[in-house]
Amino acid sequence: MNILVIGATGAQGGAVARRLVDSGHTVRGLTRSGAGLPPGVTPVTGDLADASAVRAAFDGVTHACVVLPMVFEPSVVETYIRNIAEAAVAVGVRRLVYNTANRMPSVPTSVAAFETRRFATSVLVESGVETVVVRPPVYLDNLCAPWVAGPLAHEGVLRYPLPADLPVSWLSHADLATATIAALTRSTADLAVAPPTTAAVAAPLSPDGLVGALTPEGLALDLGGAEVVTGSELAAAFSVTLGRPIRYVAQDLDEFEAGLTHALGATTAGEVVSTYRWIAEHGHDLYDLDPAALEKALAISLTPLSAWIAAQPWTELAR
Ligand SMILES: NC(=O)c1ccc[n+]([C@@H]2O[C@H](COP(=O)([O-])OP(=O)(O)OC[C@H]3O[C@@H](n4cnc5c(N)ncnc54)[C@H](OP(=O)(O)O)[C@@H]3O)[C@@H](O)[C@H]2O)c1
What we know:
Helix content is about 45%, strand content about 15%. It is an alpha/beta fold.
């Protein structure tokens, strides 16, 4: 296997690339800068907007892991994903794992962060390249950001912009990496624990309450962590593991957007926050999961929430 990871210095692509190298695979990473790749990853530089650079990055590649960067302009995303699909077809990629970086609502929305990824899914699946689509919920690692870790350390408050009663199967980047490798290497028959469906590829890949749903050319897997918890259950897990009282507070979305605007700029922050606004209004089931069914489909063990909490350097993260 000669594996290309797109976005290999990113939070998600980096975790996947690192784990692939640790598992003994030959890995190259496509980024614009080529800097900061995990050890053992061969750099390939190029912009996803540049078709010839993307084609060159795929030379000799047999498998690919794709997560798109934080870009939500539909025409730009279309260029990126068509360049990826055309290059994957040209070199005869045997399997591509596409990480949508969020779950997909079962109905179309006006949220670009969802709909551009839904469109990207359809381009890959329609290209004919064997595609396994992995759809994660929110990441546990988001809780390591200073704007979460700070109030956690100093106020005993776990403040996050999701409703307190929302069931969430928080996933770690480490478990994303484990799941991605399984999605890359296991047979589709093993991955498809759910009965085949004939869901139209251009339509939403409906979870149907199942872990996997076969489309004519692809397979979609909703990912998640070992436990599905509400905000207060998550805070309770922190309280028990850290040995001090922690309570959950659903962060005000305007406040969240103001903070994110400083980091990402108004346009990108607005697009990210629009996913949280949609979830607050319509997404009660979006982040749910049957972890046992996922573990069976991928033949993996997900990390217990308490083990993930215990492993993070919370005091350091709060600084
Ligand atoms: N579900 C969640 O909880 C969650 C959390 C965070 C993010 N997300 C989503 O995840 C996606 C971003 O993933 P991430 O956080 O891993 O991204 P990230 O940390 O910003 O990394 C982006 C990666 O892509 C590369 N890249 C950026 N633009 C590129 C281009 N035009 N051509 C080639 N490479 C490019 C970057 O390297 P260079 O800069 O060197 O090119 C980097 O390796 C977004 O869709 C975001 O909304 C979801």
